[in-house]
Design a protein that fits this description.
- By secondary structure, the protein is α+β, with helices and mostly antiparallel strands.
- It is 19% helix and 30% strand.
- The protein contains 7 helices and 28 strands.
- The two termini are 35 Å apart.
- The structure holds ligand LQZAQKY5 and molybdate ion (MOO).
Length: 393
């Protein structure tokens, strides 16, 4: 059996970053920028007032000073003239500074008397002026690759770019397999269960930026699995769920191999998730996930999400880890890397008593996958350990 790190390397070797596509900026949030966004202008494009008040010459600002108001500068319209000695222009936030003025006195520090304005407060150091290009200059870049946040999208809009180049979303086809499965909302027979895994995986991978579709459940027969693989053929990544182990009805590997899958590995020294398989099937990468619900989501987090990130051009890196102290001691680990479902508490990382890979209710309560390296420990409360945070929307 290969290690988790080796499996991840072999998975990365199966995929390449996808091509870019142009999208309107209003649809760009969450997408991965594929080409630098380059500002086409300075921001602000002119030196601008940061406050509502009066634009004057800084050297003349003293308590009690009196100015003649010679005009007005609202945002969007520069005062046409020039501010000379003893003169002021009524100005508003965002307006271009008039020529001659280099300081704004905020209106709270003034009193207006007809055509005159008097400094009646004690103005601070000022100058309440934003120089041209204070935010960014023409030619400045927001560098790719980068997942676009709300702030990034606003910045690109300010750069005056209505469209951006982003990585195409990886198309993922998810094929659940098993005679025991029905879709949520159907009427399960007494010996049947609901196919939950595909829903969790779709949500997980779409949060990463993939476009995932659920195929009809394949039955544990050659023909049904072949039909499922056929429906998935145009995907960038085919994910099967279940039928990966050694039972008589675990047909995913034999059918995929009969269809010409070039196998990259089968079985990983991890818990849960041991019967993971991967390879190339036609133009698509294929990952065969174990059927146990927690195993499927753990493998989705540890393997599939990093593969999606590589396809999006974000590089080949494992799921980000953090470190925390153990809230309580843990026994020595066995030979497989263990991803224990745990809760982050004020006292540290607290693994659940039960680590059964069928228990979705516990996975839903977990904030973290506590990582136990092979043969690690035993470890006491307070010792630092690595974990993968489980994102909550
Ligand atoms: N003799 C052995 N038996 C098993 C081994 C082993 O090494 N030797 N490995 C165990 C491990 S570890 C796992 S994990 C499971 C995984 O097996 P499969 O990938 O073949 O999964 P299935 O047998 O099809 O299903 C396991 C379990 O999960 C349920 N399931 C399947 N698909 C879904 C789905 N889409 N949504 C919800 N639940 C699903 C299924 O009903 C079973 O209860 O094998 C162990 N056995
Ligand atoms: O490896 Mo299995 O995935 O323990 O449940």
């Amino acid at each position: 059996m290969i290690s988790v790190a080796e499996a991840l390397e072999r998975l990365f070797a199966l995929v390449e970053p996808l091509e870019a596509e142009q999208v309107p900026l209003r649809e760009a949030a969450g997408r991965v920028l594929a080409a630098d966004a380059v500002a086409s202008r300075n921001q602000p494009p002119f030196s601008a007032s940061a406050m509502d008040g009066y634009a004057v010459r800084a050297a003349e600002v003293t308590p009690g000073a009196r100015f003649r108001v010679i005009g007005e500068a609202p945002a969007g319209r520069r005062f046409a003239g020039r501010v000379g000695p003893g003169e002021a222009v009524r100005i508003f936030t965002g307006a271009p500074m008039p020529h001659g003025a280099d300081r704004v006195v905020i209106q709270e520090d003034t009193t207006r008397e007809g055509e005159a304005v008097i400094i009646t407060g004690t103005p601070g150091p000022g100058p309440h002026v934003r120089p041209a290009g204070a935010d960014f200059h023409a030619g400045d870049r927001l560098a790719a690759p980068r997942r676009l946040s709300a702030a990034d999208v606003a910045l690109i809009a300010a750069m005056n770019l209505p469209e951006v180049q982003v990585a195409r979303r990886p198309g993922v086809a998810i094929l659940s397999t098993g005679d025991e499965l029905v879709m949520p909302g159907e009427d399960p027979g007494e010996d049947q269960i609901v196919a939950s895994n595909a829903f969790g995986l779709k949500a997980l991978l779409e949060a990463e930026g993939a476009e995932a579709r659920l195929l009809p459940v394949a039955r544990d027969t050659d023909e049904s699995l072949r039909a499922g693989f056929e429906l998935a053929a145009d995907a960038d990544l085919i994910l099967t769920v279940g039928g990966a182990s050694v039972g008589d009805h675990d047909l995913v590997a034999p059918v995929a191999q009969a269809l010409g899958m070039d196998t990259a590995f089968y079985k990983v020294a991890m818990r849960p998730g041991k019967p993971l398989m991967a390879g190339r099937l036609g133009a698509a990468a294929m990952i065969g996930l174990p059927g146990n619900p927690v195993s499927a989501i753990v493998c989705g987090t540890v393997f599939v999400a990093p593969v999606i990130r590589k396809m999006l051009g974000l590089g080949a890196a494992p799921a980000p880890r953090r470190r925390a102290a153990l809230a309580r001691g843990v026994a020595r680990n066995g030979p497989r890397e263990h991803y224990m479902r745990a809760r982050l508490t004020p006292h540290g990382l607290d693994p659940f008593d039960s680590q059964d890979s069928a228990l979705l209710s516990l996975l839903a309560e977990a904030d973290a996958l506590l990582i136990r390296p092979p043969e690690d420990g035993p470890r006491e409360a307070g010792e630092p350990v690595d974990y993968i945070p489980l994102p909550r929307p």
